[in-house]
């Protein structure tokens, strides 16, 4: 029998490994019981490793005009990336990195605002090991058209390694359109390396919170390589797009404004210009623009002035202020148009007030004084009204306080009434200051039978995710400074400034519509504040006018500062070249009957809502109207125009019913009618051009649903004439060639 020998080595190994086993067992038991390692939860670590998420980017809210035409919106854009690392093409027959630096640089230089050498050096001199590079601002925010051209040329020349990363950018399709009102938004990099679009100016900044959407995301589980696990489920949080801001602006009227201002800017190079167009019956601002201006896409033209002059800047109004002095006199029964006064000069204490021509026109009537825009006439009229009573009217008309428009940083202006001389100069528009917006608001009382309407520019704020209207702005009265009878009489007097041979507003005469208003030639304060500027053209020329004068539908205020006038020209020349085409074209666009057609009989539209469509069409036909049916028929749910609207014979009425729509022949329709049809039918109608319909992509009688895009081609009368003339000339040339041959 062998003697047992104790093995110390084996014992030590047993103790060590046994101890390690019990430590490991205890650790595992602890982890199972607590679910933690070093104070960190294992479930969370695993979740972070295997649960992934992708961001679903929300759209920034759109800014649209009153007819839902886009003014600012998000659109797809592309960033150019050049992959330089050869590892991108490892184990692949196809190359995924840039191989031909020179060829690639040559192609990119054709489409990017960079020189070929710059692009080549940027790729060639990249730090060793760099995976990919970008090309700064020059390679960002490319539109799809440019991207596709680049991609096609690169593919054709078999140049590899250039990627186009899809993103979004803010798009302003109308260029310089109302830029100081709309403003701009641009991308901004956050601390977490995410990029957001943020409003920097105008409505984009004021309503940035409402316009900013909330990104969504997709959560899913992946393996260690990032691939989606076959048994994993995806959880999607849908993005919430930013709210839609619907303006009172009318894109067509605004385009008339921009075109007229561009022409005058090119011809006269004024230091500043401003135009406001409003509906005096509602206070809606239909157009608002100024010069200098800028392109919100590129910021080209943007100077140190970021102010919306119509709202944030004050001016001395000059003679347009006289229409409110006149209104006060008529309301107080102090206006005697055939009474006489001595023009030329008027003394108040130690101060002498003079007319624009210094010597005056001798002894003239108050009516002639108003037509000639006599400052002295206003002084004598003020004696009759009483200067304190006059200042009461100045405040009733809203001067000296903010209008309350839905825009930021509105100025209030200053009404000077400490001394009799200040009250006198205020009567003809010097000394006291106003905003252009206040002038439009005050004049609405004259245009709207004594009722002054508060101006506003935001029509609705809509949640595009639910189509819920979050805010709905309605017309709002801001006082009744004068009676309807006074307003009518003042309009008739203002019309004589255009029609009288002595009137200062003769250049504002329109062939088709009667205009009334008041011209202005305001002195400009010197930069040092000591007195006023002098010299030919160193004035603020203006016109505040309305039409048709019997029942004004539009109110337009135009200012042109320091234009470069030619010899013999007056300040009314550039101002009328802005005002006249805007007023004439806008009234025609709104289907306002010209004066020579006022005698054409009109009838009121009936109330067809809730009536069977066949019955409604029959009733409308009895009144001499045409009808266009939207939907399959049945009860009428909505109509355009609304009941009681006055229309001439053969005018068209849109009747909305349920179901798919049979597309009509739109030839000859105005853009406004097409937009009304589009809004009622909710069809995807894509309008190309301005003016009247000359063609459409579907034939009359085709059944169309909301998923079928329809293109409608419009041309202005001038374009149609030019097209016809071009075709005639072409035919003549062909005939001559045949005869000659």
UniProtKB/TrEMBL annotation:
Where do the record's region annotations for Disordered lie?
714-741
Which keywords label this protein? Membrane, Transmembrane, Transmembrane helix
Q: Where is the composition biased (Acidic residues)?
A: 729-741
Q: SMART domains per the record?
A: PASTA (SM00740)
UniProt-listed InterPro entries: Beta-lactam/transpept, Beta-lactam/transpept-like, PASTA_dom, PBP_dimer, PBP_dimer_sf, PCN-bd_Tpept
Q: Kindly report the protein's main subcellular placement as a broad class.
A: membrane
Q: Which residues cross the membrane?
A: 6-30
Which superkingdom heads the taxonomic lineage of this protein's source?
Bacteria
Q: Where in the cell is it found?
A: Membrane
Instruction: Specify the PASTA domain's residue ranges.
Output: 657-716
Family classification: Belongs to the transpeptidase family.
Report the protein name in the record.
Penicillin-binding protein
């Amino acid at each position: 029998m062998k003697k047992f020998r104790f093995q110390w080595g084996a014992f030590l190994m047993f103790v060590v490994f046994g101890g390690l086993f019990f430590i490991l067992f205890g650790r595992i038991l602890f982890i199972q019981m607590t679910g933690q390692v070093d104070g960190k939860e294992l479930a969370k670590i695993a979740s972070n490793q295997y649960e992934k998420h992708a961001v679903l980017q929300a759209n920034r809210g759109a800014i649209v005009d009153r007819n839902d035409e886009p003014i600012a919106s998000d659109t797809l854009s592309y960033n150019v990336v050049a992959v330089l690392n050869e590892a991108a093409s490892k184990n692949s027959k196809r190359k995924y990195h840039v191989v031909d630096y020179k060829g690639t640089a040559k192609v990119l230089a054709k489409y990017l605002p960079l020189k070929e050498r710059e692009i080549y050096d940027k790729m060639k001199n990249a730090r060793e090991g760099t995976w990919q590079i970008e090309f700064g601002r020059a390679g960002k925010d490319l539109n799809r058209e440019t991207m596709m051209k680049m991609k096609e040329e690169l593919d054709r020349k078999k140049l590899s390694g250039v990627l186009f990363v899809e993103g979004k950018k803010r798009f302003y399709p109308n260029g310089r359109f109302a830029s100081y009102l709309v403003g701009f938004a641009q991308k901004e990099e956050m601390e977490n390396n995410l990029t957001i679009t943020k409003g920097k100016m105008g409505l984009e900044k004021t309503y940035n919170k409402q316009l900013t959407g909330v990104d969504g995301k997709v959560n899913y589980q992946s393996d260690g390589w990032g691939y989606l696990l076959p048994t994993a489920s995806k959880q999607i949080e849908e993005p919430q797009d930013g709210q839609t801001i619907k303006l009172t602006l009318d894109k067509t009227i605004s385009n008339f404004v921009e075109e007229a201002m561009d022409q005058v800017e090119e011809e006269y190079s004024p230091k500043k210009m401003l135009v406001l167009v409003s509906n005096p019956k509602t206070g809606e601002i239909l157009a608002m623009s100024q010069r200098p201006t800028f392109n919100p896409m590129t910021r080209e033209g943007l100077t140190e002035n970021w102010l919306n002059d119509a709202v944030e800047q004050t001016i001395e109004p000059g003679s347009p202020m006289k229409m409110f002095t006149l209104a006060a006199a008529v309301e107080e029964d102090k206006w005697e148009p055939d009474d006489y006064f001595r023009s030329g000069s008027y003394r108040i204490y130690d101060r002498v007030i003079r007319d624009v021509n210094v010597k005056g026109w001798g002894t003239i009537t108050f009516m002639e004084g108003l037509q000639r825009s006599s400052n002295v006439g206003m002084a004598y009229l003020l004696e009759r009204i009483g200067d304190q009573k006059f200042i009461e009217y100045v405040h009733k008309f809203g001067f000296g306080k903010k209008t309350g428009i839905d825009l930021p940083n509105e100025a209030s202006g200053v009404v000077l009434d400490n001394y009799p001389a200040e009250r006198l100069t205020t009567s003809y528009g010097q000394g006291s200051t106003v905003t252009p917006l206040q002038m439009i608001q005050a004049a609405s009382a004259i245009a709207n039978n004594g009722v002054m309407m508060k101006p506003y520019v935001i029509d609705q704020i809509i949640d595009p995710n639910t189509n819920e209207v979050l805010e709905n702005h309605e017309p709002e009265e801001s006082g009744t400074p004068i009676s309807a009878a006074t307003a009518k009489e003042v309009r008739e007097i203002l019309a004589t400034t255009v029609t009288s041979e002595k009137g200062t507003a003769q250049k504002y005469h329109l062939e088709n519509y009667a205009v009334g208003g008041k011209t202005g030639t305001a002195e400009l304060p010197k930069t040092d504040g000591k007195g006023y500027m002098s010299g030919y053209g160193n004035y603020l020329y203006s016109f505040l006018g309305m039409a048709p004068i019997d029942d004004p539908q539009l109110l337009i205020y135009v200012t042109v500062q320091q234009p470069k006038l030619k010899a013999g020209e007056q300040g009314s020349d550039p101002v009328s070249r802005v005002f006249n085409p805007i007023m004439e074209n806008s009234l025609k666009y709104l289907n306002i009957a010209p004066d020579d057609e006022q005698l054409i009989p009109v009838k009121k539209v009936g109330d067809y809502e809730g009536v069977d469509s066949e019955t409604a069409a029959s009733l409308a036909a009895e009144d001499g109207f045409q009808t266009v049916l939207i939907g399959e028929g049945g009860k009428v749910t909505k109509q355009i125009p609304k009941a009681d609207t006055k229309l001439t014979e053969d005018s068209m009425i849109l009747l909305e019913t349920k179901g798919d729509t049979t597309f009509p022949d739109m030839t000859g329709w105005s853009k406004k009618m097409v937009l009304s049809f589009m809004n009622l039918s909710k069809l995807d109608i894509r309008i190309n051009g301005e003016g009247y319909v000359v063609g459409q992509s579907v034939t009359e009688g085709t059944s169309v649903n909301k998923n079928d895009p329809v293109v409608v081609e419009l041309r202005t009368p001038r374009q149609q004439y030019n097209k016809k003339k071009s075709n005639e000339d072409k035919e003549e040339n062909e005939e001559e060639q045949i005869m000659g041959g």
